Amino acid sequence: MGNSISPHLESAQKTGVCSLCGKGLSEVPPQLFRLGASLRTLDLSNNRIKVLPSAVGGFTSLKSLTLTSNHLGSLPSELSQLKKLEILAVDKNGLKTLPTGLFTNLTHLKNLSLSSNQLTAFPESLGALRHLDAIDLADNKIRTLPGSVGDLQVVELNMNRNQIASLPDSLARCTRLKVLRIEENCLPLEAVTPQLLKESSISLLAVEGNLFDIKQLRETEGYDQYMARFTATKKKFT
């Protein structure tokens, strides 16, 4: 393993960028941690890593961390020390819970992707992150969205393929939320309220695969207002 990754580590010392994607790693190489605060981008995706060592907290200049497609069952609380982190991707792992207070100090986070895990709860503290643009929690086991989602500053929220049966009224308060993906959940028609359709900023509402068909949604109060936003947005990009 040492010989195959040595050139990558040497390059990372100069550039601050390290990609060890698809190297067959079963653990994070200990020598990687010598890079410390000089590392800005780290990609460990498509390996077989089961544990992310607490020493990851030493990468205090890290802006992008990609851990997609590994065997992680948990994350260390020391991740919260990466105060400059802007992108965190831990898709396709085995996460069931997240450390308490994980996002408290990640105030620069812009993109969070935790799809295809085993998470059962929506991280409530995300509402405090002012720079967060996109959250992907698709393909988990989340059953409810807390009222605190109304504090989110995101532009896109992806909750496809979870177990959500209702939507909080506070979603309509998300002034920057343009795209809400909530396909293949357990939503009844009444979950999509007139308030959400009329008062929100959502211009793309993806709800296919729930307990109603789109024809029924078209007859819901407020659907015309939603379609006006959808059409206006579409015209901007055509």
Q: Can you put this structure into words, describing what you see?
A:
Keywords: Leucine-rich repeat, Repeat. The chain is an alpha/beta fold and 238 residues long. The protein is built from four helices and nine strands, in the order H-E-E-E-E-E-E-E-E-H-E-H-H. A nine-stranded parallel beta sheet has the order 1-2-3-4-5-6-7-8-9. Helix 2 (194-199) links the parallel strand 8 (179-181) and strand 9. It is elongated, with a radius of gyration of 20 Å. The model has no long low-confidence stretch (mean pLDDT 95).
Quick synopsis:
Helix content is about 15%, strand content about 10%. By secondary structure, it is α/β, with parallel strands linked by helices. It comes from Porites lobata.
Low-confidence stretches: none
Shape: elongated
Helix content: 10-25%
Number of helical elements:
4
Q: Which sequence of strands runs across the widest sheet?
A: 1-2-3-4-5-6-7-8-9
Tell me the Rg in angstroms: 20 Å
> Strand portion, in percent?
5-15%
User: What's the N-to-C terminus distance?
Assistant: 50 Å
Beta-strand segment tally: 9
Which whole number gives the mean pLDDT?
95
Q: What profile does the largest beta sheet have?
A: 9 strands, parallel
Along the chain, the helix and strand elements come as HEEEEEEEEHEHH
Structural class: alpha/beta
Pfam family, one: LRR_8
Protein name: Leucine-rich repeat-containing protein 57
Keywords: Leucine-rich repeat, Repeat
InterPro entries: Leu-rich_rpt (IPR001611), Leu-rich_rpt_typical-subtyp (IPR003591), LRR_dom_sf (IPR032675), LRR_domain-containing (IPR050216)
